[in-house]
Amino acid sequence: MAGNWKMNLNHLEAIAHVQKLAFALADKDYQAVEVAVLPPFTDLRSVQTLVDGDKLQIKYGAQDISAHDSGAYTGEISGPMLAKLKCAYVAIGHSERRQYHAETDEVVNAKVQAAYKHGLTPIMCVGEELEVREAGNAVAHTLSQVEGGLKGLPAEQAETIVIAYEPVWAIGTGKVCGADDAQEVCAAIRGKLADLYSQDVADKIRIQYGGSVKSGNVAEIMGKPDIDGALVGGASLDADEFVKIVRFDEQ
Ligand SMILES: O=C[C@H](O)COP(=O)(O)O
After folding, report:
1. Architecture of the domain made up of 2-250
2. How far does the centroid of ligand 1 lie from the alpha carbon of residue 36, in Å?
3. What is the separation of C-alpha 230 from the centre of its chain, rounded to a whole number of angstroms?
4. Over the Cα atoms of the chain, what is R_g?
5. 17 assigned to active site
6. With a threshold of 0.90, does the pTM exceed it?
7. Which atom of ligand 1 is the closest one to the Cα of 173?
8. pLDDT tens for residues 236-245?
């Protein structure tokens, strides 16, 4: 279960938020559910200090990565910088990056390669816009993003990737994709991974659903066989709500 904070919570708020999560998750063995937060870049050092200092089980990562290791790329953050902060994960190709920063599948692929080069696990985001779904092309569109993003990636790396299926029309809109519709696309993603690699590799890859996930709908989504987790945006900013999502099996 990963919380993508997007451009929310400054570093002081981040400390308070992670402390709250850690406290609320400490009274039981929640390690069966891997919990990660993806704060803004400016929060990562504070989160690292807290997680390291208190030996918290919570993982953390970034919301983007540069395809380059260093150089004249104003405003960019590199893989070596994220690795130095001991980030476990990095979101790549989120629809907001694709939409507002013109990230193509080629760019996503370069960033996936950069993440692996520096020991970070990508959470590669894919998913269709509303008009694509309405035209009946949700699966084809999403599979093409999967194939483009994974181009050239060897099986031993691919098997550790996390793929987040996020239908764009369900992000931040309150319109959750029906669990059966989400399962249909996630099953197709797994089928594509089996074609590209092997069934064994496909079965190891974790596929998340993202798009208006809340405590009230997470259990139904998680009940689907090809959905292994959730990438949570808005609801991850409320610590109590995110904890309920993590503990979906207790509801
Ligand atoms: O990365 C998270 C997704 O964009 C979902 O956002 P949301 O839960 O606010 O709809």
Report:
1. Alpha-Beta Barrel (3.20)
2. 14
3. 8
4. 17
5. no
6. yes
7. 10
8. 999 999 999 9
